[in-house]
TrEMBL record:
Residues 32-410 form the Major facilitator superfamily (MFS) profile domain. The chain crosses the membrane at residues 32-50, 70-91, 98-117, 129-149, 156-178, 184-204, 225-247, 267-287, 294-317, 323-342, 363-381, 387-405. Keywords: Membrane, Transmembrane, Transmembrane helix. Residues 1-22 are annotated as: Disordered. It is found in: Cell membrane. GO terms for molecular function: transmembrane transporter activity. InterPro entries: MFS, MFS_dom, MFS_trans_sf, Tet-R_TetA/multi-R_MdtG-like, YfmO-like. Its main location: membrane. This is MFS transporter. GO terms for cellular component: plasma membrane. It is a multi-pass membrane protein. The keyword Membrane applies.
Length: 434
């Protein structure tokens, strides 16, 4: 996200709202808003798209599972680094140009990945894809709010809907296309993103120049004790998140093979469609209810504790296909709550501009996601298939420890206000920008 006059991320979090956004507000939008929402859906689909084809890439390109999982690491590592500077970049070149540069990079690197001849090529190309996605995701919400014809809350709800659809459909599309060829999901993403880029180029008007943001603003924001506490919480949490997402296809397929089944890309895609759907539902519907009834910090600690239990259970039952499927979907339910509650806490905990706080927080948490796939594969190869889940349980426990140790810095959370309906919707979209 970036700083603009119309971007709610730069406004103080007063909790005031002229009126709650309605479904009519959300879906009665100009074509430019729909164009951004479509591109956002495809962008979020790209996150889980590769999950079902990791075993196929490993097998057909003669790569180890550890090498295949580096497709997540390169993507997330570059996304993390870029997130620290996207708000500055958008303030320098403008929101529309930033969107277009991001989309063009995704189209280019996804298309090149479809024609790659080795896993190392795909790893490198996914890094470029991550840069493009960071530029697009970080500015899409500001652009969709700026282009809306009505209350900003309605546009944010539409963006939130696009996110949920993309998170759920990504693994399913990856499974459907991956059952034809592991190259097809990459080519499909390039085509869909190309359509989105063309629509935005034609329909989105050039905006007024955004307010200037220092290139070091996000890095300096980490000096804030409250934000630093939440960033440390997030980096350990995201390690667990991406252990579940990036590593699970391999023991899941192994468990299916042990039962005499050919799981394949379609089977994995179906499981993670359920995971993504569960994540989207709880992030939108369950998280706001729980945070209001229990409070943000109790919700975070409770959810982290339950996620730790899920990881331990996965370590114990990773040879059972049915048990793994159930636990992966349960994990999605908990991750949706955690993403939204943690981001809402970030937005309430400091008086920093929300765009800057979000960039700093997102950059750090994506680093945790980048490390997890790089560690999970070698650890499983050196020990047992359940070991990565036990390590994830440990990192989730460390996440709880970071939150409790730094809790004294979070006194402002829940004390002065609750987010308005529009701000809460924004927390959901930022929180789920995995």
């Amino acid at each position: 996200m970036t700083s603009t006059d119309t971007d709610p991320s730069t406004a103080p979090s007063t909790g005031a709202s002229s009126s709650a956004p309605t479904l009519r507000d959300a879906f009665h939008q100009p074509r430019a808003v729909w164009a951004i929402a479509f591109a956002a859906t495809v962008s979020f689909m790209g996150i889980g798209l590769v999950d079902p084809i990791l075993p196929a890439i490993s097998e057909q390109l003669d790569a180890s599972p550890s090498q295949a999982m580096l497709l997540f690491t390169s993507y997330l590592f570059i996304t993390a680094i870029a997130m620290f500077f996207t708000s500055w970049f958008a303030s320098a070149v403008g929101v529309k140009r930033t969107l277009m540069i991001g989309l063009v990079l995704v189209v280019l690197f996804a298309a090149l990945a479809a024609g790659a001849g080795s896993v190392n090529e795909i790893i490198g190309l996914r890094a470029g894809w991550g840069l493009g996605n960071a530029l697009f995701i970080s500015t899409a919400l500001a652009a969709i709010v700026g282009a809306t014809a009505g209350p900003s809350g309605g546009a944010i709800i539409l963006y939130e809907t696009a996110l949920g659809i993309g998170m759920a459909l990504g693994p399913l599309l990856g499974g459907l296309l991956g059952s034809v060829s592991w190259r097809a999901p990459f080519a499909g993403t390039a085509v869909l993103m190309g359509i989105g880029a063309l629509a935005i180029a034609v329909l989105l008007q050039r905006e007024a120049k955004p307010a200037h943001v220092s290139p070091l603003a996000a890095l300096r924001a980490l000096g804030n004790p409250a934000l630093r506490t939440l960033a440390l919480t997030a980096i350990f949490y995201n390690f667990g998140f991406f252990t579940l997402l990036a590593y699970s296809p391999f023991p899941l397929e192994a468990a299916a093979a042990a039962h005499g089944m050919e799981f394949g890309a379609m089977g994995i895609g179906g499981v993670f469609f359920g995971w993504g759907l569960a994540l989207a539902i709880t992030s939108v519907f369950a998280a706001p209810v729980l945070t209001r009834r229990l409070g943000l910090i109790p919700t975070l600690l409770t959810t982290l504790g339950l996620l730790t239990a899920v990881m331990v259970a996965l370590a114990l039952v990773h040879t059972s296909m049915t048990a793994m499927i159930v636990l992966i979907v349960i994990g999605g339910l908990l991750l949706g709550i955690m993403n939204t509650a943690l981001t809402e806490t970030v937005m309430e905990a400091t008086d920093l501009p929300r765009g800057v706080a979000s960039s700093a927080y997102s950059g750090v948490r994506f680093l945790g996601g980048a490390i997890a796939p790089a560690v999970a594969g070698p650890l499983a190869a050196a020990t047992t298939a359940g070991a990565p889940y036990l390590l994830a349980a440990l990192t989730l426990a460390l996440s709880m420890a970071m939150l409790m140790i730094g809790r004294r810095h979070l006194a402002a959370v829940g004390q002065e206000h609750h987010l308005s309906a529009a701000e809460e919707a924004e927390a959901i979209t930022v929180g789920d920008e995995v």
